[in-house]
Amino acid sequence: MPKDGGIGASTKRREDVRFLTGKGRYTDDINIRGQLYAHFIRSQVAHGTIRKIDTRDAEAMPGVVKVFTSADFTGVGGIPTGWQVTSRDGQPMLEPKHPVLAEGKVRHVGDPIAVVVAETLDQARDAAEAVEIDIDELPAVVDMKAAVKGGPLVHDEIGSNLCYDWGFVEENKAAVDEAFKKAAHVTTLDLVNNRLIANPMEPRVAVGDYEDHSGQHTLYTTSQNPHVIRLLMGAFVLAIPEHKLRVVAPDVGGGFGSKIYHYAEEAFVTKAAQILKRPVKWTSSRSEAFISDAQGRDHLTRIQLALDADHNFTALRCETYANMGAYLSTFAPCIPTWLHGTLLAGNYKTPLVYTNVKAVFTNTVPVDAYRGAGRPEATFQLERVIDMAARELGVSPVELRRKNFIQPDQFPYQTPVAVVYDTGNYQATLDKLLDLSDHAGFEARAAESKARGKLRGFGLAHYIEACGIAPSNLVGQLGARAGLYESATVRVNATGSITVFTGSHSHGQGHETTFAQVISEMIGIDASQVDIVHGDTSNSPMGMGTYGSRSLAVGGSAMVKATNKIINKAKKIAAHLMEASEADIELKGGKFTVAGTDKEKSWVDITLAAYVPHNYPLESMEPGLEETAFYDPSNFTYPAGAYGCEVEVDPDTGKVTILSFTAADDFGNVVNPMIVAGQVHGGLAQGIGQAMLENCVFDENGQLLSGSFMDYAMPRADDVPFYSVDHSCATPCTHNPLGVKGCGEAGAIGSPPAVVNAVLDALHRGGFTHVTHIDMPVSPSRVWQAMHG
Amino acid sequence: MQMSDSREIAAPPAIVWQAILDPDVLRACIPGCESLSGSVAEGYQAVVKQKVGPVSATFTGVVQITDIVEGQSLRISGEGKGGVAGFAKGGADMALEPSEAGTRLTYTVDASVGGKIAQLGSRIIDGFARKLADEFFTRFQDAVEGPEEEPAPTEAEAADAAPKKGWFKRMIGG
Fold it and tell me: Pairing between strand B2-9 and A105-106?
């Protein structure tokens, strides 16, 4: 029998009622009396010197209040970077200024130059046409290798386009090279991890408000982490102390990473509201989102795998060029390094790993974390090169992986890339996958496809990822300029209902349902008595927000910790009321009992006593029932799994059809299986989108060619199959109280190599054995060209 | 975008050369040209109205004739700003040589766009540039070549901006 509440129940998402009935309250729904509208004028060239900006005609136009340029932001800091990476030579990364509005130069198409603020949006747009901007176009650099080989400088003042040159593990470099010399077989693969555009359903919006009488600033914004925005913008950009700055991120319609970062538009509306003494709103158009939201991936990689004569992996060596775009976005430097290099051991016993990452500035939109962030890039290259090695050696890709897996009795497992996997069982997920996908019946299905003139292929990929980020002391050593704990305040109200203020932020993840299930389970009250409140720095403790599949593992743990404090205090009150020893008090099903007696007090008896303390141990305990906890994880969580994809390739056209996709994941304990399945489904759709359809393309002048949904192909319902998803192979996380691992990014991390491996398998079975790799997206034209090239 | 082509024009090279350097010819031949003023030496100021896919705009900019090798070759290039629609720039390297028909005109056209036109119209921009170039050289050829037969213009044709065949040749008394 499935549970109808608490941990383990597939409780329907309570927040969906308001989302599906149009009652969600998104940032664009917020309109403040007297509000003005901002329209950003953005660079049309990828690189250029600003010669002149003449705003006089525009400022004389109807409704225009002011036209802002960088001259209005001279006393303001640049948009900061939250992570410092150190190069192989010990030097810190190059960190050029990222101004709120372009100063002197524009560096990518979409770089904001000026902003018209007017009474209506139409007036602002009309006036934008009258702003005269004279820019001398400079040669743009788009190609990463050209950028580091003496291409035009994106930032003249730093003298190089190479942001950093990172080696990991640098001390292992010589040993890795030596292992390659001794290898019985070496497989080498050059690949591209295609640049993606996140495209959340809701484009970004920011509304700035300022109270002249109190000096209080408020920013309403589409953010995954309002406290981080308050910290970055308040401390580094606008010099507003935190007690004078409130940041609210209400309902947010998807983020996928792109709404983690502090963006110039947020600082702009906050500052403009103060200057103009009126609220200022900016709403991104979809076209604007394509050239102003941070983008994802964009790696050029050479990966090499060394094997001994028995097909044991002996070493892995990688060289990656990672595109930063024109400026360093908030967490950009850590994505290709600490979220990428540390995952290159994968699920395998490979004893030696060395990776070199060169982060490069180009005249393109900035790149930062996008669902998976570094881990999809690591998984893709690793799982592709293993498949390629199996093909070269004439062995089964399934068995080659199995042979090299870390064994279940080896946990905790110290990888050669710093991280320690606490738990896992990769054989179990592989067996589950082969079973669920009826691998035994594959040959018969392949024969059936062949009879219809189609090429069928099976692709396998394993993944492991480090999420639930992250231990603050560790990330501090690695260059993070923030801690990565999470917070929760659990407020028990007098009549027993509970309001939880969490530092996590929900923008589609279903926290309002899942978190309430956990509280319900712990205290034994109905989940309907629990509300989860998030997204407002004025009512919740300092929290780090939601990304890196951290909300339940870190935010949920903080909530559990605070709830345990509540339970401990409630037991003391119960002991006092029932004149019993605290040690004898038990809480079960919402009732406090004294062990070995029939004495009983209800949850509400206790909560009422806490707030109406007529009979209460006031001499030893404060009244009230409200606790705050901060939880800092001692390790990452390491979800892992086996993904299988079955495709059919039409040899006449090169068109790939995904017939089935099976995911066997180990997420540890699961609070709400339906929500977890939904997270996996969404991740798979995005991974399949990367593998099959999505590609962000700039021309050689830095113009974005895939700048609308006409040219940037998002997956649609008929592009993805019905998924088979399983998370029964659970090895609970050993270091957080719920035993949970992150599940939000797994689908996007593990699926791209499964798809590409399946396409390669189909082609090889069809006799196209000269095809060794096809870069994503595996579009019909690329597949056909590979077959006939 | 880059493309090369050639045309046989039934007029001697000297006439063709003269036509290329005539601003009235340029104005008549540049598709969507609303005004053009200036000189070969100083460049022309031009206003051109065009619709590229979903984006329509009036481009204001400069047309220049450079790299002149008298009677043989030159480059016509232009750069126009279309406000929020973005910008377009391009040019044509043209060369003349005598041929049996009169003159062989060979040309290489290049074009690039930026801003909203590039963001929304990149798929169609190559075809669009090709069509514009084709239209330009067809108009040019028609202007320079002599009148063959001239049917009475229909109303629709009369309203069309395209100039009548052979007008340049008639104008210079050819």
Answer: unpaired
CA distance linking residue B22 with residue B168, whole number of Å: 9
- Tell me the two tokens of residue A544: 């780090």
- The reply to whether A475 falls in a domain is no
**A117 strand-pairing partners:** A38, A66
Pull the structure tokens for residue A707: 């700048």
Chain B positions touching A704 (Cβ under 8 A) are 118-119
Among A603, A631, A659, which residue terminates a domain? A631
- Interchain CB distance below 8 Å, A705 and B118: yes
Sheet containing B43-52: order of strands: B2-9, B103-114, B87-98, B73-81, B55-69, B43-52, B33-39
Q: Write out chain A residues lying below 8 Å of B82, CB-based.
A: none
3-state secondary structure A677-741: HHHHHHHHHHHHHHHHCCCCCECCCCCECCCCCCCCCCCCHHHCCCEEEECCCCCCCCCCCCCEC
Residues A683 and A602 in one domain: no
Question: What is the pTM for the complete model shown?
Answer: 0.94
Residues A100, A244 within the same domain: yes
Residue A469 CA to residue A483 CA, distance in Å, equals 10
What per-residue string of b and e applies to A77-111 under the rule 16 or more CB within 10 Å gives b? bbbbbbbebebeeeeebbbbebbbbbbebbbbbbb
Q: List residues bridging with A531 in a β-sheet.
A: A499
A344-353: per-residue pLDDT in tens?
A: 999 999 999 9
Tell me, what DSSP letter sits at residue A552?
A: I
A417 and A540 in a single domain? The answer is: no
pLDDT value, residue B3: 86
**Residue A394 within a domain:** yes
Residue in B with minimal Cα distance to A700 = B112
Q: What is the CA B45 to chain-centroid distance, rounded? A: 15
Helix runs in A394-480, H state only: 397-404, 426-436, 442-451, 472-477
pLDDT tens sequence across B80-100: 998 888 898 889 999 999 999
Are the Cβ atoms of A44 and B123 closer than 8 angstroms?
Answer: no
At A642 the three-state DSSP class reads strand
The answer to whether A645 and A459 are in contact (CB under 8 A) is yes
B40: how many CB neighbours lie within 10 A of its CB?
16
Yes or no, beta carbons of B120 and A710 under 8 Å apart? yes
Secondary structure string (H, E, C) spanning A220-261: EECCCCHHHHHHHHHHHHCCCCHHHEEEECCECCCCCCCCCC
A427 touches chain B (CB under 8 A): no
The count of structural domains within chain A is: 3
Q: Interface pTM (ipTM) of the complex? A: 0.81
Provide the strand spans (E) within A169-235.
185-193, 205-211, 216-221
How close B156 comes to chain A (CA, Å)? 35
- The dihedral through the CA atoms of A443, A444, A447, A452 has a sign that is negative
Considering the domain architecture, whether residues A121 and A238 belong to the same structural domain is answered as yes
Taking an 8 Å cut-off on Cβ atoms, the answer to whether B120 and A699 are in contact is no
Q: How many residues does chain A have?
A: 789
What domains can be seen in chain B, in order of their start residue?
A: 2-169 (3.30.530.20)
Alpha carbon distance A424, A418 (integer Å): 17
Which residues of A fall within a CB distance of 8 Å from B87? 44-45
Whether the Cβ atoms of residue A631 and residue A486 lie closer than 8 Å to each other: yes
Domain range enclosing A569: 485-631
pLDDT at A362 over 70: yes
Q: Does residue A708 belong to the interface with chain B, where contact is any CB pair within 8 Å?
A: yes
User: Can you name the residues that pair with A321 across neighbouring β-strands?
Assistant: A300, A358
Q: How far apart are CA A446 and CA A763, in angstroms?
A: 12
Find the DSSP H helices in A525-602: 557-577
Q: Is A704 on the interface with B (CB under 8 A)?
A: yes
Q: Quote the CA–CA distance of A118 and A584 in Å, as a whole number.
A: 67
Q: Are B109 and B6 in contact (CB under 8 A)?
A: no
Tell me what the pLDDT averaged over chain A comes to.
Answer: 97
Residue A719 resides in a domain: yes
Kindly report the number of other CB atoms within 10 A of residue A411's CB atom: 16
